[in-house]
Amino acid sequence: MNKQTTDVEEILQKKGVKPTAVRMNVLNFLLDQEKAVSLKDIESVLSRMDRSSIFRTLKSFEEHKLIHSIDDGTGMTKYAVCAEGCNCELEDLHYHFYCISCEKTFCLMDHPISTIELPKNFKMIHANMVIKGLCDKCNK
Amino acid sequence: MNKQTTDVEEILQKKGVKPTAVRMNVLNFLLDQEKAVSLKDIESVLSRMDRSSIFRTLKSFEEHKLIHSIDDGTGMTKYAVCAEGCNCELEDLHYHFYCISCEKTFCLMDHPISTIELPKNFKMIHANMVIKGLCDKCNK
DNA sequence: AGATCCTATGCAACTCAGTTGCAAAGTTTA
DNA sequence: TAAACTTTGCAACTGAGTTGCATAGGATCT
Ligand SMILES: [Mn+2]
Ligand SMILES: [Mn+2]
Ligand SMILES: [Zn+2]
Ligand SMILES: [Zn+2]
Predict the structure, then answer these.
(1) Contact A130 B133 (CB under 8 A)
(2) How many CB atoms are located within 10 Å of the residue A44 CB?
(3) Does pTM surpass 0.90?
(4) Would you call A6 exposed, middle or buried from its count of C-beta atoms within 10 A (0-12, 13-18, 19+)?
(5) CATH of the domain at A38
(6) Is residue A79 part of a domain?
(7) How far is the centre of ligand 3, averaged over its atoms, from the C-alpha of B61 (Å)?
């Protein structure tokens, strides 16, 4: 735990999510990570809590723009806490990186998705951009 | 059918896949499409053929670089025939577009994935880039 | 041709992440 | 306190994808 209970409570309040035990635990865990995590990852750590409760918590967090989800192609959706000031709009989108060796999925916060030229009349609303390869620790 | 049986047979031969009935039918269907299709799409058209046979056919096609797969976030993998000369290498990667209105997934062949700046020592090997929004026909 | 071998196919069963219905527990409101 | 609403846990279900296995279909050898 790298955050005080009160911090987590505040964050939830601010985003309009009622701070319950499950929610505080899930958010606390998410804030601890340097990589994006799956429902299963959370489940195995917060083993006292039910899968569906964690699932619904994640859905709720996503709706309230507290976290964003990443489809990294592994078949398990990953979740990561949104950056300060993120509103989950086009300008907040960033690339994600999946390491095929250590199997970690990273948010590349410093790599925003620049405007992409599209065919005439196509309109971009959202995007899921995943680069796969080797992370710095696995690239020897 | 927009291709003669012999054409399809030739393509399979050239890519090192033995041309069987299932394979020729699947390839024929794939060549007909202007959008990427799912296993289910193929199944519902080639209803005489078994799902697992089509599934294994797609896997085989992918291994032999006849088609490439796209994870567009819908939960159903889409497949599209590779362009002439495609070797499924980095330089062959291109953006994909998923229309949230008509639910079609397109290959943006004219939009190759340019080299993306990555954090120090990260190495890109592959990528799945999906832009979501409205296609020209749905964007009114 | 007939026997043998290898591959492709169809069928059924299974996996597994995600999702939902429902009742019990907990919280807020009147 | 009682009623109303929300959250949680449990169990059952969904659906795409995947696999084992027996049969069918071709190719190859004698
Ligand atoms: Mn991210
Ligand atoms: Mn494509
Ligand atoms: Zn790694
Ligand atoms: Zn459309």
Answers:
(1) no
(2) 10
(3) yes
(4) exposed
(5) 1.10.10.10
(6) yes
(7) 29
CB contact under 8 A, B131 and A111: no
DSSP code at position A75? S
Q: Give me the tens of pLDDT residue by residue for chain A, a chain 140 residues long.
A: 445 566 899 999 999 999 999 999 999 999 999 999 999 999 999 999 999 999 999 999 999 999 999 999 999 999 999 999 999 999 999 999 999 999 999 999 999 998 889 999 999 999 999 999 999 999 98
Provide residues 65-124 of B with CB closer than 7 Å to any strand D atom: 75-77
CB contact under 8 A, A133 and B122: yes
- Nearest CB among B71, B108, B125 relative to A71 is that of B71
Establish if B33 belongs to a structural domain. yes
The CA distances from residue A57 to A17, A23, A54, A87, in Å, are 10, 6, 5, 19
Q: Of B96, B104, B116, which to mutate for an interface test with A (greatest number of A Cβ within 10 Å)? A: B116
